[in-house]
Every structure is written in structure tokens, then in C-alpha cells.
């Protein structure tokens, strides 16, 4: 540290204390090295006197103290080291001797010392640069003189094949060049590895004085080209060295020599790239070709425009014959290039060339010469403002693509600009600006009167359609403000802008666009696409309620339009289950038009031709004219609503009821419109687009559909109820009461017959069935003469009536099949009529006695007849509702009958086991527990509270016994039975029967109306 800082006294002190003078630090530097670098002569002397082991010790870079001292220029230190035997030709890692390092640093005295001590002046470094070449390059003239005196080699070349003279030119040292020229023996035309002469090297670096020296000394070829075929003039132009260019031109340098690099430019082209106006001006004055094209097809003007060299462009445009429409490799003209690059000032310059001339390149000059020929004949230059490049874009299109707002303004001010020219993607400038989201440019174009705002792209979409597709709300607003915009133009899918925007919902921006379009007065909301769908259809299909509501507010909306399947918007909403959309339609002012749609489907082939029953029915009922109409399924929105959306159907019902005055007004009236509920007979209707009168199947009537649907409660709505009453009073009541009257007569006849005919256990029947010798038996006494006449007549009437009704049931089965089989009443009626025939078939020769089995069949027939009568009075206005309620309660009971059977079985079997007494059976005593069946019946009667404890606890053979058998189990079983059955289970049944009486009554009333 003391050696580095130059603390001589400290060094002396340390040496007195025997400090090690040969110790090295982390960089392998000894104290001598550290003292030599900054040039502390006294310390170096002290160290050398105190036994430095190796004066040529090297550090990690293989530098010796002598080399380090040469770099820093410490002459005295160098002198001391040389006296102590330092190696004057030591080479470090860079293959540099101390002499080379002194030459680089320019320390003349040290160079002189080294030479005096035998330094080798021809040893080269790793670049093969000898000391003389290095000194020439650095411009150290005195060192050059020293080396020349000692005989340095002037012809030595480095790795780049540069001689010392070439190195002097590279360094730009005029003095060194003059010295070498005076010395003589140098070749001024020598070339290096790149075939550059000293003149070319000097021009490349802008050394005007060196170049002048060389030219005065007699350069053999001023137009010599290097390996790139580039002349000194070209190299000077590349860097924009004006003075060098001026000098070369004075010596008649060729201004049009082209190089052979990647682009093959002339000096003028190179100067244009650099943007040096003075150089360009000099070249043009000396005859440079203004329209020369390089390998890329670029003229100087094209290159100047690419680099944005305004002054150069201005200068070139002043030249006669300059081609202002020359193109580059992408077929861009200078104007197109300037537009792409955004060089606004250059665009202005180019546009001035065409300001007072014709508007396009296809017209002729006033002299009749085509424009393309006019340039060659000196006519005024005209910029082709509509020239198209490789992308088929005009300058305006390119400016829009790159977002050059100011340039677009300039171009739009020009006469003849084609604002509607399309590129290779069939996009105009307006569409390009939109797609690149250059809103300001888009606004500028919209303001131009010549812009076609309805131009279409490859998908046949207008800018408005594209904006709607992309969700560009602000653009849509701008376009809708234009009177010229066609808001109803369709794309290749026949979608308008409104439909396109709707397709992209539910994104927020697209919803806003839909609202904007719907508010526009010119939008046609009834346009259909290729699937014959309007936007209302699509909105209903997707359930976009807000859009449906907006559409329904428009007066021009057509709700009657149908898609290819014959469905209008309301039909579609119902079929897709979009309740809110359907509700929006029926709540609008156009609800009637929406409901006036119909579809007729022929069901004859589907229902009647597959089975024999179907063919039979056709033979029986379809031979008359008009029966084909009866086989047609009539479908309307009202029917769809009834089946699938009762809440919406209810709103329609409300719409069909019109009140003239408030309910409390004395003249309060309600007018009912049955057009949609009773739509088969519309002879009185004059509404257009509504079906003609049709023959129909009653099953397809709205009331029948309503009765069979989950929305049957709507039958109680005043609209349905009044219509039903009208039809009931007109036809249904007569038919019903007639049938009920005849059936009632049948029941009375059957009952009286059963009471009149002889039972099998009567005396006369027992005598008849026990008469084996065929003796004459008086069947009827005088007091039973009436019975003798009545029984055969009643029997015949019952059989005939039952047979007729059985035939009716068969026809019903054929007609309705599955529907018939699902009704339990039909099974009861069939059994009733069959059993009635069996029961009524008694013979006179047996005194009209019934057999035992026949009598039991008769009992069942009588029972079923009265049960059927109960079912028949369900439609009566007062009694009917209670019959229905009874049936519903019975249905509730059936749901728990399995539980009842299991509970009864759970107690009946143990009761039989506990209370059965074999002695009672032996003695013929009939107790409740003598058989399992009697035990089960007993358990059932006990369930309803008939416990009869005597029959339970007092058996005949245990009269004197203190208690029953198995008392613990018996009493426990009875207690559990009482708790579970008469108390809990019976209360459960009562709760099911009366727990929801109000609801049962409501549903019963609805069901009664359904039966009507």
C-alpha cells in the first residue's frame, strides 16, 4: 500500500524492519510493480537496492514492472529498471512488448530509451501491429521518426493487411502521412484486406486533409472500388462528409458508380439515406442520376422518404425528371412510403407536386400526351395519389392503417383522392380505420362527403355491421349520426346490424348497441335472416327479455312473422321455455296479433294407420266428407301457453276481459273475448292472417286442453268459466242429464230386480235346486203374480241396456286407447255391465232362481251400480263438488293403505296366536279368533274403536280362570294396539281427510269443471 501511494518514508521504515520486497498481492503484483505503475522513482530505487529477487516478475496479465512503467510514461523508472537488467522485449498476454505499449501511449523518451537498450522494433502484437504501424495510427510523428531511423519495416502488414502508411491514413494523422510520403518508398495505392486504398480509408473517416494529400501525391485511381465495389466518394457519402465529397468531385470522381453490397446504391442513394442535404446537392450538380434504382428497386427519392429526410426530398423534387411515382419492393410510391412512415412534412411536399395538375394518372395532359409519357417529355410531375401497393392499398389506406391522422387530413383535402378504394381484403379506408381502432381518423372519413359508409367487406358487412360485431359502441354512435348510413344492410348470413349486435349479447357493450339501434328511426326490426328469423324471434329463442320489451314498444314490430317452421315469436318463446319473453309479448299492445297464429298437423297417419283399431276406426267414422279435417291437430299460441305457461295464459285471459266500469259501479259490465279460447268457429271474425273455420276434434279444443293440462285451475277464470257455462248450457247439460236420467233408471231397475228375484236360499229356490225327479213346482203364488211378469221384462231390459253400454265402452277403448285405460271408472263400468248381464240371466223354467255364485255377482253389480251413480253426479253443480272431494280423500287413503295393511297384519297374527282356543273349534263355538281371517276382520273393526274387551279377555274354557292365558304379553299387545291403531293411525287418516279441506275443495271444483 505504501508503494502504491508513494509514501517513501514509510517504505524506508518497513525495509529497515526487514519487510519482504518480493511479496505479491491478489493480482500477483510485487511492491516493485505497484511502485512502477504510478512512477514512484525513489521507492523503485529503494526496492531495487534491497534485493528484489526478479526485476521481471509478472502479474496475472503477464506484465512486468517495465511494461507497466512504459504505459504510464515514467521515464526515470524505466531507466532504473533497464539499468537493473529488465527484459526490454518481454511479451505480455496481448503479445505486446514494452516498446509497443510506449508507442501506443506516445512516450517518445521511453521509446528512445528502449531502442537504445536493444528493443526489437519489429515485434508485433496479437493483431500483428508492429510499433511503427501503431505509432502511425496514433499519429505520434516523433516516434515514427525514431523507428524509421532505426530501420523499422515500412512494408509490414497487420492482420487486416494494413501497412504503416495505411494505418496513418486510418488514424487521420496528416503529419504522419506527410512524414511517410517524404521518407519515400510508400505505395499510396496499396490496398488492405477489404481492398480499401488509403484514399478510401481516409474518405470513409472524413479525413479531408489526408485525402487531399493523397490526391496531390498522385493517386492512381480515384474511383477505385473496395471489396463492396464502393468508391471513396461512395464511402464519404455514406457518412455525409461534405468537404470530402466536394474534394473528390473537384478531382472528377464518378458520381454514378454503384457498389455491390446488399442494395447496390450509388453515392446519391447513400447520401439520401444519410440525409445530408449538402452532399446530395453537390452530387446532383455533378450529374448524379436522380432515378437510379438499387437492387430493391429504390430510387434516391424513395430512400429519402423512407428515412424521413425532408430537406433531401425537397431538393430531389426540384430536379427535372425525378420520378415521384417510383415504387419500392412493396410497390409503395414515395407518397405511400411517407404515409406509412408518418412523415407528414414529406407528404406535404409530395402533394404540392400535384396541386395544380390533373386528378389521376389515367387522364391526358392538355396537349393530349398520356401522363406516363408526359414525365419523359418534361411535363409537370404529378403524384399518383391513388396508387396501390402490394396490399392493394392507396396512400390514404396506408395512412389509415398506420393511424397517421394528420396525413389523412392532408389527403382528404386533395382533389381526386379515392376515398372508397379497397385493399386486398376488400376494405376501404373507412373500414381499415375502424379495424385498427383509429377513431379520430374514422371520424374524419365520415365527415368526407365522398366516403361510402355502406361499403361491404368480404363477409358483405358494412362498417356499421362490423362495429356491431366488434362491440364498438362509439363507432356505432358515429355511424348512426350519418344520414347516408344504411342501417338495414345485410351480410352474407342475411343479418342486419341489429341482428349482428344481438347475436353477440349478453356482453354489455353489445346490449348498448342493440338499444341504440332500436332507438334509430330507420331500423327495420322485421328483416329476416336466411333461417327466416327476425330479431324478435332470436330474442325470444334466447330469452333476452329486455330486448323483447324494447322491440314490443316499437309500433312497426310485426309479431305475426313466422319462421320456416311456421312459429311466430310467441310460439318460439313458449317452445323454448322463455317465460319472461312470452310475458313481455302478451303484455304488449300487440298481444292479439301474436296470438293469431295457427298450425295444422294431420294426425290421421300418425294415429290411425298403425294398428287394426286405427283402420277400424277409419272405416267406421271417416267415410264422410270433412272427416279429414277432424283428424287435423290445430296448434295455436294459446294452446301452447295453456300447456306450458299457465301464468302467461292467465295474463291472456285477463286481456280478454274488458270492464266497462269499476266493480262497484251500478252499470259494471265485463266483456269477454273468446277469440283465442274458442277459436274453431270464427265465421264472425274478420281479422287478417287468422285461420278459416275448421272442423275439429273436440279433444283439440282449448277448453279440453286446459282441462287436461297442469293449468286446469284456469277453468275457474271468468273467461273460461263463462265460455264453459255457455257450452254446457247449450249442449253438454242436455247430453249429461239425459245420460244421467237413463242411468238412474238402470240403477233403479237393477235394484228392484235384485229385490224381486228369488235368492238362492229362499224356500222355493231350495226346492227347485233340490228337485231331482222333475216334479211340477208352483213358482209363483197368486200374491206374486206381479213378480212373475216383472222379472222377465226387467231381465231383458237390463241385459239389452248392459250390452249396448258394453259396445259403447268397446268403441271408447278403440277411440281413446291409452286415455281410456288410465281411467278407473271405465273398469268399474265394464265390470258392472258384465256382472249385470250375468246376474240378469235367470231362467223361467227354474222359477227365476239365482245360483249362489250368481247371487253374489248380483250383489257386486248392485254395489257397483250405485258407486257408478255416485261418479256420474260429479258434474252436478252442488252435490258434484262433494263427490269429487270424497274421491280425492279416498285417493289419499289409498296412498297409506299399504301402511294400514302392514299394521293390521302386525297385530292380527299375534292376536290369533294369543287368543286362539282349539276347544272352541272342537265345540263349534265361533269366537273372533277361531280363524286367521276372522282375527284379521276383528283387528280391522278394533282399529275404528270397536274393541269389545269381553270377546278379547273372556274365553269360554277359562270362565273360572283367574286371568287370560299369557297375561303379560296379551295386555302389552292390546295396549300397544290401542295406542297405535285407534289413536295414532285413525287420527292420521282423519288428518289426511280434513287437514287440507280448502285446498281439496278448490281442486275438486276445478276437477268438476274439467269433467264438464
TrEMBL record:
ANK repeats lie at residues 1-26, 27-52, 61-93, 94-126, 127-159, 228-260, 263-295, 296-329, 330-356, 391-424, 459-481. It is found in: Membrane. SMART domains: ANK. Keywords: ANK repeat, Glycoprotein, Ion channel, Ion transport, Membrane, Repeat, Sensory transduction, Transmembrane, Transmembrane helix, Transport. The keyword Membrane applies. Residues 742-1003 form the Ion transport domain. It comes from the Eukaryota. This is Ion transport domain-containing protein.
Amino acid at each position: 500500500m505504501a508503494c502504491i501511494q508513494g509514501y517513501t518514508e514509510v517504505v524506508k521504515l518497513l525495509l529497515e524492519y526487514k519487510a519482504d520486497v518480493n511479496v505479491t498481492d491478489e493480482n500477483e503484483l510485487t511492491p516493485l510493480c505497484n511502485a512502477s505503475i504510478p512512477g514512484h522513482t525513489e521507492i523503485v530505487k529503494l526496492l531495487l537496492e534491497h534485493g528484489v529477487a526478479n526485476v521481471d516478475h509478472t502479474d496475472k496479465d503477464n506484465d512486468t514492472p517495465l511494461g507497466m512503467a512504459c504505459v504510464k510514461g515514467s521515464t526515470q523508472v524505466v531507466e532504473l529498471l533497464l539499468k537493473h537488467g529488465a527484459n526490454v522485449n518481454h511479451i505480455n498476454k496481448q503479445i505486446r512488448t514494452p516498446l509497443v505499449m510506449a508507442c501506443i501511449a506516445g512516450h517518445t523518451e521511453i521509446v528512445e530509451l528502449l531502442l537504445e537498450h536493444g528493443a526489437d522494433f519489429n515485434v508485433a502484437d496479437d493483431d500483428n501491429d508492429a510499433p511503427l504501424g501503431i505509432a502511425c495510427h496514433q499519429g505520434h510523428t516523433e516516434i515514427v521518426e525514431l523507428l524509421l531511423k532505426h530501420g523499422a519495416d515500412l512494408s509490414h502488414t497487420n492482420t487486416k493487411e494494413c501497412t504503416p502508411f495505411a494505418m496513418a491514413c486510418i488514424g487521420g494523422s496528416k503529419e504522419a502521412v506527410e512524414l511517410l510520403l517524404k521518407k519515400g518508398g510508400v505505395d499510396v495505392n496499396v490496398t488492405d484486406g477489404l481492398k480499401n486504398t488509403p484514399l478510401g480509408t481516409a474518405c470513409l473517416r472524413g479525413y479531408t486533409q489526408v485525402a487531399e494529400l493523397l490526391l496531390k501525391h498522385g493517386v492512381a485511381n480515384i474511383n477505385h472500388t473496395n471489396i463492396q465495389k464502393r468508391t471513396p466518394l461512395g464511402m464519404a457519402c455514406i457518412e455525409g462528409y461534405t468537404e470530402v465529397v466536394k474534394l473528390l468531385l473537384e478531382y472528377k470522381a464518378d458520381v454514378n458508380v454503384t457498389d455491390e453490397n446488399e442494395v447496390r446504391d450509388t453515392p446519391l442513394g447513400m447520401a439520401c439515406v444519410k440525409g445530408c442535404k449538402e452532399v446530395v446537392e453537390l452530387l446532383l450538380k455533378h450529374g448524379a442520376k436522380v432515378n437510379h434504382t438499387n437492387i430493391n428497386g429504390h430510387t434516391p427519392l424513395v430512400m429519402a422518404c423512407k428515412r424521413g429526410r425532408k430537406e433531401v426530398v425537397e431538393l430531389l423534387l426540384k430536379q427535372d425528371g425525378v420520378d415521384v411515382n417510383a415504387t419500392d419492393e412493396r410497390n409503395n410510391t414515395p407518397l405511400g412510403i411517407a404515409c406509412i412512415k408518418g412523415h407528414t412534412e414529406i407528404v406535404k411536399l409530395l402533394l404540392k407536386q400535384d396541386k395544380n395538375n390533373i386528378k389521376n394518372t389515367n387522364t391526358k395532359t392538355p396537349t393530349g400526351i398520356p401522363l406516363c409519357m408526359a414525365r419523359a417529355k418534361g411535363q409537370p410531375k404529378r403524384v399518383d395519389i391513388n396508387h396501390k401497393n402490394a396490399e392493394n392499398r392507396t396512400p390514404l389506406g396506408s395512412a389509415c392503417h398506420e393511424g397517421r391522422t394528420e396525413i389523412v387530413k392532408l389527403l382528404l383535402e386533395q382533389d381526386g383522392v379515392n376515398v372508397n378504394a379497397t385493399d386486398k381484403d376488400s376494405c376501404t379506408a373507412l373500414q381499415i380505420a375502424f379495424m385498427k381502432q383509429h377513431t379520430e381518423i374514422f371520424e374524419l372519413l365520415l365527415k368526407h362527403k365522398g366516403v361510402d359508409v355502406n361499403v361491404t367487406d368480404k363477409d358483405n358487412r358494412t362498417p356499421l355491421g362490423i362495429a356491431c360485431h366488434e362491440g364498438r359502441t362509439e363507432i356505432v354512435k358515429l355511424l348512426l349520426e350519418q344520414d347516408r348510413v344504411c342501417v338495414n344492410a345485410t351480410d352474407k348470413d342475411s343479418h342486419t346490424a341489429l341482428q349482428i349486435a344481438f347475436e353477440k349479447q349478453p356482453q354489455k357493450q353489445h346490449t348498448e348497441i342493440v338499444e341504440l339501434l332500436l332507438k334509430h328511426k330507420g331500423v327495420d326490426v322485421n328483416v329476416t335472416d336466411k333461417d327466416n328469423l327476425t330479431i324478435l324471434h332470436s330474442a325470444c329463442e334466447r330469452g333476452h327479455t329486455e330486448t323483447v320489451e324494447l322491440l314490443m314498444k316499437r309500433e312497426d314490430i310485426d309479431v305475426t312473422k313466422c319462421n320456416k317452421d311456421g312459429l311466430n315469436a310467441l310460439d318460439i318463446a313458449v317452445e323454448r321455455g322463455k317465460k319472461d319473453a312470452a310475458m313481455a309479448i302478451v303484455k304488449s299492445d300487440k298481444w292479439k296479433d301474436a296470438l293469431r297464429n295457427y298450425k295444422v298437423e294431420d294426425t290421421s297417419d300418425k294415429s290411425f294407420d298403425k294398428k287394426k283399431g286405427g283402420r277400424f276406426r277409419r272405416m267406421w267414422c271417416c267415410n264422410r266428407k270433412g272427416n279429414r279435417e277432424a283428424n287435423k291437430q290445430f296448434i295455436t299460441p294459446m294452446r301452447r301457453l295453456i300447456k306450458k305457461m299457465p301464468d302467461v295464459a292467465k295474463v291472456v285471459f285477463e286481456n280478454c276481459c274488458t270492464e266497462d266500469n269499476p266493480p262497484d259501479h251500478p252499470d259494471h259490465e265485463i266483456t269477454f273475448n273468446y277469440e283465442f279460447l274458442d277459436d274453431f268457429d270464427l265465421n264472425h271474425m274478420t281479422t287478417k292472417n287468422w285461420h278459416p273455420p275448421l272442423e275439429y276434434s273436440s279433444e283439440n279444443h282449448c277448453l279440453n286442453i286446459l282441462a287436461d293440462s297442469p293449468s286446469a285451475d284456469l277453468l275457474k277464470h271468468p273467461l273460461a268459466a263463462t265460455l264453459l257455462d255457455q257450452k254446457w248450457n247449450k249442449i253438454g247439460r242436455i247430453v249429461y242429464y239425459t245420460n244421467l236420467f237413463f242411468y238412474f233408471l238402470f240403477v233403479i231397475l237393477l235394484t228392484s230386480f235384485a229385490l224381486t228375484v228369488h235368492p238362492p236360499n229362499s224356500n222355493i229356490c231350495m226346492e227347485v235346486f233340490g228337485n231331482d225327479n222333475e216334479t211340477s213346482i208352483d213358482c209363483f203364488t197368486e200374491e206374486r203374480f206381479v213378480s212373475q211378469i216383472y222379472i222377465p221384462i226387467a231381465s231383458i231390459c237390463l241385459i239389452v241396456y248392459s250390452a249396448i253400454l258394453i259396445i259403447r265402452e268397446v268403441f271408447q277403448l278403440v277411440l281413446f286407447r291409452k286415455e281410456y285405460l288410465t281411467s278407473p271408472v271405465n273398469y268399474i263400468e265394464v265390470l258392472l255391465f258384465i256382472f249385470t248381464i250375468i246376474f240378469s240371466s235367470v231362467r223361467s223354467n227354474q222359477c227365476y232362481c239365482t245360483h249362489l255364485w250368481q247371487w253374489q255377482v248380483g250383489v257386486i253389480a248392485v254395489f257397483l251400480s250405485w258407486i257408478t251413480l255416485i261418479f256420474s253426479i260429479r258434474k252436478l253443480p252442488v252435490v258434484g263438488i262433494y263427490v269429487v272431494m270424497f274421491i280425492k280423500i279416498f285417493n289419499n287413503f289409498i296412498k297409506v293403505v299399504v301402511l294400514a295393511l302392514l299394521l293390521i297384519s302386525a297385530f292380527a297374527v299375534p292376536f290369533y296366536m294369543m287368543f286362539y282356543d282349539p276347544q272352541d273349534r272342537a265345540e263349534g263355538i265361533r269366537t273372533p279368533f277361531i280363524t286367521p281371517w276372522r282375527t284379521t276382520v276383528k283387528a280391522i273393526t278394533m282399529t275404528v274403536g270397536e274393541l269389545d274387551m269381553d270377546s278379547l279377555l273372556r274365553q269360554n274354557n277359562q270362565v273360572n280362570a283367574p286371568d287370560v292365558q299369557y297375561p303379560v304379553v296379551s295386555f302389552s299387545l292390546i295396549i300397544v294396539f290401542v295406542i297405535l291403531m285407534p289413536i295414532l293411525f285413525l287420527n292420521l287418516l282423519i288428518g289426511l281427510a280434513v287437514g287440507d279441506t280448502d285446498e281439496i275443495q278448490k281442486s275438486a271444483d276445478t276437477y268438476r269443471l274439467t269433467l264438464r
